[in-house]
Write a structure and sequence with these properties.
single chain, alpha+beta, 3 helices, about 40% helix, globular
């Protein structure tokens, strides 16, 4: 299993309250899980920062998601309107366990 860690700083903290941002985030999550096999998605915002972690079964699934047309459009729009800057890390999950 792999995790994609997306960390961003908003150009304006009020972006989080923008319906367009919320609708796009919801749409992207739905597409990622229904078409590309995203296993889980968790995000949190605090002030002008966001962190989102998505879990994937393979690097191939991540690569296919990265090339999705809607995802590419959202990335471009985010660069131009929502984010001051962002970073992405892809990591392999070595161990995963839960409490009972």
């Amino acid at each position: 299993m792999y995790a994609v860690i997306f960390k961003a700083v908003f150009s304006d903290p009020s972006v989080v309250e923008d319906d367009g941002y919320t609708q796009m985030a919801t749409r992207l999550r739905d597409i990622a899980s229904s078409q590309y096999g995203c296993l889980d998605f968790i995000s949190s915002t605090e002030k002008d920062q966001e962190i989102a972690i998505s879990y994937w079964p393979s690097l191939e699934a991540i690569s296919l998601w990265k090339q999705d047309d809607i995802h590419l459009s959202a990335q471009q729009y985010g660069k131009e309107h929502w984010y001051k800057h962002y970073s992405i890390e892809i990591v392999e999950v070595v161990r995963h366990y839960k409490s009972a």
